[in-house]
Design a protein that fits this description.
The chain has 3 helices and 10 strands, in the order H-E-E-E-E-E-E-H-E-E-E-H-E. It has 178 residues and is of the alpha+beta class. The two termini are 19 Å apart.
Length: 178
């Protein structure tokens, strides 16, 4: 069994959580997301995580570690590259925006909003992933994938986030580790 999946299953057991059939794992060190179904690797994707060190603390802008679930899905049917603000489509593709706006890492295409499942670790209080608005989402800077550059989210290629979005369900587990 994949070592990452094993660590995730051990954390699930410690928390009394039943592992889901579909699981996403994120390696911050490798800048790699892997999607598993029934324990078998289905697809891996080059991603980007935070430019800052990993952190679960509010306002740190670091990518949070630990066991999460997909709490909400936003963007079904939106074209690749559509920009979201507050999880609502602006109706504009990032190419339609000016250079200043495009210099930012925009939330594009699809959103998988994460909720931490570890009380005091990434859930509740000053370490709540959901309250920090940490997502898996598309980006207007696909050329930067593979190197850390986000503000805490896990960012992906726009076409790849569509495919992943279509495969996963709310409640599916997401494991993020160094």
């Amino acid at each position: 069994m994949n070592e990452t999946l094993q660590r995730m299953k051990e954390r699930c057991a410690a928390l009394g959580i039943k592992p889901t059939e579909r699981v996403i794992t994120v390696s911050i060190a490798r800048q790699l997301l892997m999607f598993f179904a029934d324990g078998a690797l289905q697809k891996s994707h080059v991603i980007s995580t935070s430019l800052r060190p990993p952190s679960n603390v509010k306002n740190s802008r670091g990518t949070p570690r630990g066991l999460h679930e997909i709490a909400e899905k936003h963007g079904v049917g939106a074209p690749p590259g559509i920009v979201f603000k507050g999880r609502v489509s602006t109706g504009k593709h990032f190419h339609e925006l000016d250079d200043e706006e495009n210099s930012k890492n925009l939330v594009t295409t699809r959103i998988l909003w994460l909720r931490g499942l570890e009380p005091g670790g990434n859930a509740g209080g000053n370490v709540d992933t959901y309250q920090r608005y940490v997502y898996l989402h598309g980006t207007n800077h696909e050329e930067r994938l593979g190197t850390p550059f986000s503000d805490g989210c896990v960012v992906m290629n726009n076409l790849e986030i569509i495919a992943l979005f279509d495969e996963v369900r709310t409640g599916d587990l997401v494991w993020i580790e160094d």
